[in-house]
Amino acid sequence: xxxxxxxxxxxxxxxxxxxxxxxxxxxxxxxxxxxxxxxxxxxxxxxxxxxxxxxxxxxxxxxxxxxxxxxxxxxxxxxxxxxxxxxxxxxxxxxxxxxxxxxxxxxxxxxxxxxxxxxxxxxxxxxxxxxxxxxxxxxxxxxxxxxxxxxxxxxxxxxxxxxxxxxxxxxxxxxxxxxxxxxxxxxxxxxxxxxxxxxxxxxxxxxxxxxxxxxxxxxxxxxxxxxxxxxxxxxxxxxxxxxxxxxxxxxxxxxxxxxxxxxxxxx
Length: 267
Prior knowledge:
The protein is an alpha+beta fold.
């Protein structure tokens, strides 16, 4: 059963940790009006739904859901990344991937499915999986690959430290987007054997400015840290949910390996 507008509004307000007064002030309406909306005693206008959604910092997908619950059509379009209307976005993504070579870079969706990789990313996947790069029939989920016991975990010398940070990130995603799919992904990750519980997600004090992933395979040692980029002014659901993850070497040895891969076999 679909949630009503009033229950969705109250749920998001509580998720954001706001009182009715705080939400009212942010949306520039009266507390009484917010109260009536949450009780279902007043029907919102389309403009009011969007004002409240903006005050709650809702993602575009959830803004559409709130509009539908109030009886209005969606405001924001969504569709395939390959759609013609996203041609300029695709050009920007391809440019970012190319500029990152020979270091790895990936285009991901909001639930960490791998959509695209540059040459360095393809080399990294091939190295870690012992398989030449090929476009997967179904997207590789990098979250599950990192956390599952039979994929990347055996190759990560500091897996526990890395997964603690990563689970925090997915938990923040689940809190921010409020979707059942992201919440389900978080629960799947937490259910894998050996994954630290929420109460254990703490780290010792460290002096390093970043936490690098330390992959060890045979005689090869790779230390990589990452950056995540999103589009700054999205007005399309798909565009808002795209991420570009770029990997950088954390030491000169790793840089030499990545450059060596590209020199021997550019992809």
